[in-house]
Specification:
This protein is an alpha/beta fold. The protein has 3 domains: 92 residues, no CATH class; 323 residues, 3-Layer(aba) Sandwich (Rossmann fold), CATH 3.40.50; 278 residues, Glycogen Phosphorylase B (Rossmann fold). It contains 33 helices and 23 strands. The mean pLDDT is 97. Bound molecules: ligand GPK. Ligand GPK binds next to helix 6. It comes from Metabacillus malikii.
């Protein structure tokens, strides 16, 4: 191993030869990446082993975070940073004439997630390790992560993502710890010692093989584990059609479902969910049994967290193992299970609520279905005892009803804690969406406002800003991000404002170069970089942003004297491949870009840029360069948002609705440092109840709205007048479900204020710095400490001596 620049160089050159079978001269950048990656993994391994031994010897309570998505992003740079060897490595490579950042670009971006939910899981792992908390991730090793997006003639085209094509230097395959998963077959009942026992027979068995990845804490010796399961056929399988068995088995972990906040309801997805859950629970029980024997005490030593309802079958699976395999009684097993499991809800959108048709569920997972039926019957009996005769309520709260298994109900009934992800979201859960459950189990409900890892989104993504903050307030904030508040004591220094302006400009320049290279568009560094990057969804209202740009275009065309602060509107978004509306919006953004950017006069003032294939690595270049952060969801619909926090931490000002964590950001920084607009969540919920919203009235009464909506279908954009008809229809014929037209005027007003505010340069940057100074509250370290104390009851484990 290496301990300084020189020993690193020596090690690197030797390893390059032995690994790649080539001399230094012939080696490619990828060879160098693989060599370096392997060296770093090896560097990690002693800490990794030590951490596991420490957890074992201290018999600490462990938490297992089950998630169908982990959106990790590239690991080399973050690992170097967390291990504190980035400088040695960077300087050593430089002396060999190699650029570290070029090597980093070689790493594929593991995109085992769609958006916020998956990225949250990745930030949580980072915080768990850094806080020395014994917490591990369990997920799926998808062969293909989220699709790569190509834009062809303004349309999104999806290509299979290939992150494993050149291998994964971070993973360690552990075939000895493989477990068997059973699908199909039937349940056989028999009597045993006077009681009934159940056996799942004639099942099709699939092997779950773990691949472990190290999760390196920042400047600590803790290295936790992310265990990703791969589906493989069993070697000695008595199947007649061996080929189709192999194909079906491997299909389980082939693809990540590309839907965000949408329930696919396909049998393959159900297979993935049970595969993840069964493999993980078996593995958790196996490691518990290495140290202890009394499973009645499981909840004292283990916490299992389910990230949304996708792993909700953890409840019946744990029951199955405790009863069928370990011989506990139902009541004993239920006590343990419901004390062990906790659940986070991430959305109130109805289309995201998972409900499985019994006719799909029962044949695939006969024993699990049986256990859910029993849980349901006992739960309904409890309800009956509390609300005798209230059939309506019981029907509404049942886990199984109308031919469907309701996964959220299963998760709530089987968990000790249910949390939302921002204050407003948790309140909506308690008072509306899950009101009846809150009334029945008030003690279970709580809030844990989301957070982000400042190590990735500030230290790694924005080294320039990191250096400035260190020079200004020292380094304590790096370990304790709440200390960023100290920046406030330096706001009066004009030098700080100037230096921050210089950092922002530098980062805008870097992004502008990328835009020039990828899009062939030259953007003005003095313009406001106004950014909306997130999944494409109607409720996130990229359309509102587009309509505002159309409005500006019209003003600029109609009135030569109309002047505004120049702006560059930047978008990045993937649409689910089957989400027709979302794909149309992507096309609309491109048509608008064409129109705006090609207009000789308008393009001097505004530009529109769509950045292809938005993903973690691209995001790391975007947040630091933003002046304005667009967080414009229909109030009540965005559970929290986390991009909002990443922008804030990098000194962008938010244009936002009073939704999700935007509200807590405003409470923290004050109304004067954020630009809010639009309906409140209460307004929206009232409209939804009383049905009094008529989008047509807004269309008729506001000429600006009429003009832009008409332009969707009058040939303004394209020869094909039908191209954007579905979007116009969503606004008028379908009465504008997300209140785009209702919020239009208010959005135009606030955007005008933004333009004016930007002209007072000092004041703008001061506001930006105030945002940064308060962003420590939105560190995932804070969030994870709250989960650890309130939900999981776990404590840090430190190296002795
Ligand atoms: C919520 F329900 C879901 C989902 O399926 N995928 C997803 O990314 C997001 N989310 C919410 O939409 C965000 O508001 C939230 O910040 C994020 O989860 C993390 O909690």
């Amino acid at each position: 191993m290496f301990s300084n620049k020189d020993s690193f160089k020596e090690c690197f050159l030797k390893r390059l030869e032995s690994m790649c079978g080539k001399g230094f001269e012939e080696s490619t950048t990828r060879d160098k990446y693989h060599t370096l990656g392997n060296m770093v993994r090896e560097y990690i391994s002693s800490k990794w082993i030590e951490t596991n031994e420490r957890y074992r010897s201290e018999s600490q309570k462990q938490v297992y975070y089950l998630s169908i998505e982990f959106l990790l992003g590239r690991l080399l740079g973050q690992n170097l940073l967390n291990l504190q060897i980035k400088d040695i490595v960077e300087e050593g490579l430089k002396e060999l004439n190699i650029s570290l950042s070029e090597i980093e670009e070689c790493e594929s971006d593991p995109a085992l997630g769609n958006g916020g939910l998956g990225r949250l899981a990745a930030c949580f792992l980072d915080s768990l390790a850094t806080l020395n908390l014994p917490g591990h991730g369990y997920g799926i090793r998808y062969k293909h992560g989220l699709f790569d997006q190509k834009i062809v003639d303004g349309y999104q085209v999806e290509l299979p993502e290939q992150w494993l094509r050149h291998g994964n230097v971070w993973e360690v395959r552990k075939p000895d710890e493989s477990v068997e998963i059973s699908f199909w077959g039937r349940v056989e009942a028999s009597t045993h010692n006077g009681g009934l026992t159940f056996k799942h027979v004639d099942a099709q068995k699939v092997l779950a093989v773990p691949y472990d990845m190290p999760v390196v804490g920042f400047e600590v010796s803790t290295v936790n584990t992310l265990r990703l399961w791969n589906a493989e056929p069993e070697t000695f399988s008595p199947h007649q059609d061996i080929l189709s068995y192999k194909r079906e088995t491997e299909a389980i972990t082939d693809f990540l479902y590309p839907d965000d906040t949408y329930d696919e309801g396909k049998i393959l997805r159900l297979k993935q969910q049970y595969f993840l859950v069964s493999a993980s629970i078996q593995s958790i029980i196996a490691s518990f049994k290495k140290e202890r024997s009394n499973l009645r005490e499981l909840h004292q030593h283990v916490a299992i967290h389910i990230n949304d309802t996708h792993p909700a079958m953890a409840v019946p699976e744990l029951m199955r193992i405790l009863i069928d395999v370990e011989g506990l009684s139902w009541d004993e097993a239920w006590e343990v299970t419901s004390q062990t499991v906790s659940y986070t809800n991430h959305t109130i959108l109805a289309e995201a609520l998972e409900k499985w048709p019994i006719h799909l569920f029962k044949p695939l997972l006969p024993r699990i279905y049986m256990i859910i039926e029993e849980i349901n019957e006992r739960f309904c009996a409890e309800l009956w005892a509390k609300y005798p005769g209230d059939w309506h309520r019981i029907e509404h709260m049942a886990i199984i009803a109308h031919g469907l298994v309701k996964m959220a109900h299963l998760a709530i009934v089987g968990s000790s804690s249910i949390n939302g992800v921002a204050k407003i979201h948790s309140n909506i859960l308690k008072n509306r969406e899950m009101k009846s459950f809150y009334e029945f189990y008030p003690w279970k409900f709580n809030n844990k406002t989301n957070g982000i890892s400042h190590r990735r989104w500030l230290l790694k993504a924005n080294p320039e800003l990191t250096a400035l903050i260190k020079n200004t307030i020292g380094e304590e904030w790096v370990r304790s991000p709440e200390k960023l508040i100290d920046l406030k004591n330096h706001l009066h220094q004009s030098s700080l404002i100037e230096q921050f302006a210089a950092v922002k400009r530098k980062r805008k320049e870097i992004l502008a170069n990328k835009i020039a290279e990828k899009n062939g568009i030259i953007v003005d560094l003095d313009s406001i970089f106004d950014v909306q990057v997130k999944r494409l969804h109607a409720y996130k209202r990229q359309l509102l942003n587009v309509l505002h740009i159309m409005y500006l275009y019209n003003r600029l065309k109609e009135d030569v004297n109309y002047t505004i602060q120049p702006r560059t509107f930047i978008f990045g978004a993937k649409a689910s491949p089957t989400y027709y509306y979302a794909k149309k919006i992507i096309k609309l953004i491109h048509s608008l870009a064409e129109k705006v950017n090609k207009d000789p006069r308008v393009s001097k003032v505004i530009k529109v840029v769509f950045m292809e294939n938005y993903r973690v690595s691209l995001a790391e270049g975007i947040f630091p360069a933003a002046d304005v952060s667009e967080q414009i969801s229909t109030a009540s619909k965005e559970a929290s948002g986390t991009g909002n926090m990443k922008f804030m931490m990098n000194g962008a000002l938010t244009v936002g609705t009073l939704d999700g964590a935007n509200i807590e950001m405003m409470e923290e920084i004050g109304k004067e440092n954020i630009f809010t607009f639009g309906l409140t969540a209460n307004d929206v919920l009232k409209y939804e109840e009383n049905g009094r919203y008529r989008s047509m009235e807004y269309y008729h009464h506001d000429q600006r709205i009429r003009q832009v909506v008409d332009q969707l279908t009058n040939g303004f954009f394209s020869e094909d007048e039908g191209e954007f008809e579905s979007i116009a229809d969503s606004l008028l014929v379908q009465n504008d479900q997300y209140f785009v037209l209702r919020d239009f005027a208010s959005y135009i007003d606030v955007q005008e204020k933004v333009g004016l505010a930007y002209q007072d340069r000092n004041d703008w940057y001061e506001k930006a710095l105030i945002n940064i100074s308060h962003s420590g509250l939105f560190s995932s370290d804070r969030t994870i400490s709250q989960y650890a104390d309130d939900i999981w009851k776990i404590s840090p484990s430190y190296v002795k001596g």
